[in-house]
Write a structure and sequence with these properties.
single chain; 14-stranded mixed β-sheet; four-stranded mixed β-sheet; alpha/beta; 14% helix; 26 strands
């Protein structure tokens, strides 16, 4: 009997610590097997970091709901490796403990039935494509995450909400692209960068409010958010990159704070994806102060612009003041430039100095003619 017990204990020890494969040079993947209360067998693969911690490498089993352990064989779990649960379609719920700092590349990508994830307070980084195409995932709440990688939640088509509470500073490119059910976002007041195409094609989004800490909204960040009605900018030094809100066809006006540094080309313009440039329009009204980036954008784009100090709307290039750019404006500009008509007063030049060089010249006349013809 003693021999049998000794053999059994040796077998168990071997079972839970068998080295199965080398991950990279100098690293060995270990396995830990256990049976849960329902009699189901599970296997965790992990890598000992050599400092009392380990990385959760992968999982073998068919659990629907899974709580990743805080410890494996006395080692604290501090990260989830790349592709640890990749395409694990059985998963519907995952609890990530507070000990985990990093969620790896494609860690949960293509877990089509994963509907709920609890992200622990310790998680600081969610790597690229971590939850890509988790099409059943309904919402994400991050507490101390500092950075979200590119494509991290892209094509999570059932996601309705995203909340960040404390430390988030960076959202990567395409991070939430094509999350077509996303209708609520709450950014922490630490956010600095929203990268290119981060929320592109989030068609259910109706309102977005940015914190004062935000310094950049990348190119096409909210492009084609066709349900977006309200955009509230903070009072920080902000760069709004080109096409950032292009084709937000429900958006009718935006107020640009004096603190905005610059606004890129066609940031608020409407344009069909397959349309040529001549069909571009700009019905979004820009509300801004004199001398601001809002005015510069209105001049450059031909956007209807309400200037707060003047208490009126201005269409830059509308020389005759009838509220729209017509062929008469283009003809009048050409006649003034050629000397057929007298020059404009200084205040009138402000409304048609498209190239912002202080005078009405031939380049301004050409720009007005293009706008009359609706050529971008």
């Amino acid at each position: 009997m003693k021999k049998f017990l000794a053999f059994f204990l040796i077998f168990v020890l071997l079972l839970v610590t068998i080295p199965v494969v080398c991950a990279t040079e100098g690293e060995t993947v270990l396995q830990y097997d256990f049976i849960d209360g329902n009699g189901k067998q599970h296997r965790y693969y992990y890598i000992d970091n050599g400092d009392g911690t380990c990385r959760f490498h992968s999982y073998l089993g068919s659990a629907n709901e899974l709580s990743i352990p805080k410890e494996i064989m006395g080692l604290t779990v501090t990260s989830i490796d790349d592709e640890a649960f990749y395409n694990k379609v059985s998963l519907t719920f995952v609890n990530i403990p507070d000990t985990v700092l990093v969620i790896g590349l494609r860690a949960f990508a293509y877990c089509y039935n994963l509907s709920s994830v609890v992200i622990g307070k310790g998680v600081r980084f969610i790597n690229s494509q971590a939850f890509q195409s988790c099409t059943s995932l309904t919402g994400i709440n991050v507490q101390n995450v500092e950075a979200i990688g590119h494509l991290a939640f892209s094509r999570c088509t059932s996601m309705t909400s995203f909340r960040s509470q404390n430390q988030l500073t960076y959202i990567g490119e395409n991070a939430f692209e094509n999350c077509t059910s996303l209708n609520f976002i709450r950014f922490s007041n630490t956010l600095e960068t929203i990268s290119a195409s981060a929320f592109k094609n989030c068609t259910a989004l109706t309102t977005v409010t940015f914190p004062d800490s935000l310094t950049k909204i990348g190119a096409r960040a909210f492009q084609n958010c066709t349900g977006l009605e309200t955009v509230n900018f903070g009072d920080g030094a902000l760069i709004i990159d080109m096409y950032a809100f292009e084709n937000c066809t429900t958006l009718t006006e935006v107020t640009i704070p004096q603190t905005v540094v610059s606004i890129g080309k066609d940031a608020f313009r409407f344009r069909e994806e397959d349309a040529v440039s001549s069909t571009a329009t700009h019905p979004v009204k820009i509300i801004c102060n004199l001398g601001s980036a809002g005015v510069a954008y209105g001049v450059a784009s031909g956007a209807p612009t309400y200037i707060i100090e003047l208490e009126k709307e201005v269409v830059f290039g509308d020389i005759d003041g009838n509220g729209q750019i017509t062929l008469d404006d283009a003809i009048k500009a050409l006649r003034i430039v050629s000397g057929v008509e007298p020059p404009l007063a200084e205040e009138e030049v402000f409304y048609c100095d498209i190239n912002n060089n202080g005078i009405l010249d031939l380049n301004d006349a050409r720009a007005i003619l293009k706008r009359e013809a609706n050529i971008a």
